[in-house]
Amino acid sequence: MRVALFVPCYVDQFYPQVAIATMQVLEKLGCTVEFPPNQTCCGQPMANSGFEDQQAGCNRVIVDAFRGYDYIVGPSGSCVLHIKQHLHHEDETTAAQIRSRVYEFTEFLTDVLKVKTIDARFPHRVGLHQSCHGQRGLHLSQMSELVAEPFSKPEQLLHMVEGLQLATLDRKDECCGFGGTFCVFEESVSAKMGKDRVADHERQGVEVITGADVSCLMHLEGILKRQQSPIKVMHIAEILNGA
Amino acid sequence: MSVHPNKPSQPHAELAQQFNKDEDRVNWHDETLWWIRQKRDKAAWSVPEWEWLRQTASDIKAHVLSNMHDLLTQFEAQALANGAIVHWAADAAEHNAIVHRILQENKVQQIVKSKSMLTEECGLNEYLHEHGIDVVDTDLGERIVQLAGETPSHIVLPCIHWKKEEIGELFHQHLHTPKGNADPQYLTGAARIHLREKFLTRKVAITGVNFAIAETGEVVVCTNEGNADMGTHLADVHIACMGIEKLIPQRQHLGVFTRLLARSATGQPITTYTSHFRKPAPGRQLHIVLVDNGRSRQLGREAFRNSLKCIRCGACMNTCPVYRRSGGHSYKYAISGPIGSILAPNLDMRKHADLPFASTLCGSCTNVCPVKIDIHEQLYQWRQELYKEGLAPKGKAVSMKMAGWLLGKPALYRFAGKAARTVLRLAPFMVKNSLNPWYKQREMPAPPKQSFSEWYAKNKKA
Predict the structure, then answer these.
(1) Residue B217: Cβ within 10 Å count
(2) Which residues of chain A are under the pLDDT cut of 50?
(3) Longest Cα pair distance anywhere in chain A, in angstroms?
(4) Class of residue B166 by CB neighbours under 10 A (exposed 0-12, middle 13-18, buried 19+)
(5) C-beta separation of B3 from B122 below 8 A
(6) Which residues between 32 and 61 in chain B have a beta carbon less than 8 angstroms from any beta carbon of chain A?
(7) How far is the alpha carbon of A18 from chain B, nearest alpha carbon, in Å?
(8) Cβ-based contacts of B324 with chain A (< 8 Å)
């Protein structure tokens, strides 16, 4: 199985350890992982600001980089969702193929690799941040608003980790307030939302906040560091990689 | 036409920032509305077929939107046959003028009005006030904001931004209750006495309309306080004001909506009063004002027409993490929160250009919506429309074009990324300053020496 690693721009630049962990977990699970070097961004910053046409360059880069792979896997639900919903190109056949073959990391593990056990130990109290685009967009977990059977792909994986204690949050799927450019254009509300999310995890006594989307974790980390909190953030791939 | 002349015109972000100066108050506002969201969840889970109900309601409304002409004509014919007087208003100005004319014809200077978001949308209170008419809002929450000289901050809970102590002080000033008394039961009692005199003396009552049934020509009004009933039963003239999208085809469809409305709004199984008004009592008048005010235009916008399915339950506001932390007045429109942010740009794109950006696109609004409006998708679409109409801020347009250009060139991107990390490492003051909104309450991510692509080139390719 030839898997292309999709590493969104800010993960590449600021969180290389997340991409490394993602790659290593996939390799441990038997995938042949390749990293097409010429990749940049999913185009979401422009599109979510209203400039959908300005993501044409990104679309070209994505189509060139990921053409022909069986699967494309990325450690960021939001960027994966954006490709799924908004990737278009003059070569629409390839674009459609990429849209249908791109997976967020945890759903790839549970749905494609059908992982039942994971060789990882993490003896810590962990809080899971459900990222909105992963959850409500990609349906990685059931949404608290719906009257429907609960499930959670990230939780399913975390339960396989030895020693890991998963905390229950007061608000299990409230947005962290990152929202892309929202975090600077609506700074006060964005930061307040982040502070409130952090406070929920603090109330549950977690040592680590994890999640399947680095952008939310970056936001929460920015707040935790400013508050000089001992709570760390880690992408779920880092935990599943044995940590 | 200015819909709300007395409302502030600063952008949402600025008003939200002012709201956030008092963090304790933001916490209180957030927790109050979250409590209502939780009540809504509990009520929804008490109905096993909840998701089916939502889908059915959405489908019925889709049918209404596709058959607007026939259903409106049918409704009018039935209402006329029932003895009601039907008026058509193309916009807010016509609506206000029609209401004023009815008052003049009946030689009335003082009226009571129960809750109607349509009249808020049309700025009826201000208009009638300018024409010397005294309007008393009889919904308790609306009366509170009216006494305070404000507009509602929430469509279902108009004074949700007021604390009971503040209401005690307001009532002390206006209704002469004892200073310092903030007992909700006592204050409600005082409001009852105050409103009772209005109900008994006013000859015209205005109500909103929750549902209008095409099959029978009747209108249905849902309240918890019975104030719509008290007003209309004691008045000689009932004026029911409704947006044309309030239609449902038949009476048998009503139950779908009444089961959803109150559960979504407040977590109650049903509103305390669900009153059907079909024909005027002998010697009395029933006027129905059908208002377009941009609805036909919205119906013609394919991406946004579903917004007209809204039944005004307010669930999207209660669940919205941005609304809860910015307050209803930061939206500067009669209908605040996520639904307001997709309705308002239809009326005036320039004026409301900031609203589609007052969201993280988290999607919770779409999930609670009892008629399944894809609210967050429409927020995204409005952003695209605003840019196409040239209403995006200049600076944003320039930076997004640059970003799009740079991210279309992988080699340049890698160079720029390395440069940015180097700057952040060697000259952190370039970013860690008060000009960077991120840095105000958050630390920057620590810049690693190697990007992943650099690491991969060194460790994997060889």
Answers:
(1) 22
(2) none
(3) 51
(4) middle
(5) yes
(6) 34, 41, 44-45, 47-48, 50-51
(7) 9
(8) none
Return the DSSP state at A103.
Answer: E
- Nearest Cβ partner for B438 among A40, A48, A183: A183
Query: In this structure, what is the dihedral angle of CA atoms B21, B24, B27, B28, given to the nearest 10 degrees?
Result: -120
Task: Label each residue of chain B as H, E or C.
Answer: CCCCCCCCCCCHHHHHHHHCCCHHHHHHHHHHHHHHHHHHHHHHHCCCCHHHHHHHHHHHHHHHHHCHHHHHHHHHHHHHHHCCEEEEECCHHHHHHHHHHHHHHCCCCEEEECCCHHHHHHCHHHHHHHCCCEEEECCHHHHHHHHCCCCCCCCCCCCCCCCHHHHHHHHHHHHCCCCCCCCHHHHHHHHHHHHHHHHHHCCEEEECCCEEECCCCEEEEEECCCHHHHHHHHCCEEEEEEEHHHEECCHHHHHHHHHHHHHHHCCCCCCCEEEEECCCCCCCEEEEEEECCCHHHHHHCCCCHHHHHCCCCCHHHHHCHHHHCCCHHHHCCCCCHHHHHHHHHHHCCCCCCCHHHCCCCCCHHHHHCCCCCCHHHHHHHHHHHHHHCCCCCHHHHHHHHHHHHHHCCHHHHHHHHHHHHHHHHHCHHHCCCCCCHHHHHCCCCCCCCCCHHHHHHHHCCC
Nearest-by-Cβ selection for A188 from B20, B356, B455: B20
Alpha-carbon torsion A229, A235, A239, A241, what sign?
negative
- Are A54 and B404 inside 8 Å of each other by CB? yes
Closest CA to B44 of B60, B32, B57, B31: B57
**What values do phi and psi take at A179, rounded to 5?**
60, 25
- Per CB-CB distance under 8 Å, the chain A contacts of B410 are 37-40, 61
B129 touches chain A (CB under 8 A): no
Residue B80's DSSP bridge partners are none
Q: Do A51 and B380 touch (CB under 8 A)?
A: no
CATH level 3 topology of B47-293:
Rossmann fold (3.40.50)
For position B4, what pLDDT does the model report? Answer: 47
- The stretch B334-341 carries a mean pLDDT of 97
* Beta carbons of A132 and B360 less than 8 Å apart: yes
The domain limits of chain B are: 47-293, 408-459
What average pLDDT does range B184-194 have in this prediction?
96
The Cα–Cα gap between B358 and A191 comes to: 14
Quick: pLDDT tens for B405-439: 999 999 999 989 888 888 888 888 878 888 889 99
Any residues with CB less than 8 A from the CB of B330 and at least 6 apart, and which? B12, B15, B16, B19, B336, B358
Smallest Cα–Cα separation from B455: which of A126, A85, A7? A7
Maximum separation of any 2 CA atoms in chain B, in Å:
95
CA distance B390 to B397: 9
User: Quick check: B195 and B219 in contact, CB under 8 A?
Assistant: no
* pLDDT score of B1 more than 50: no
pLDDT digits (tens, 9 = 90+) for B41-57: 999 999 999 999 999 99
Alpha carbon A188 to chain centroid distance?
A: 24
**pTM of structure:** 0.96
C-beta of residue A127 within 8 angstroms of C-beta of residue A87: no
Residue B123 in tokens: 């700025």
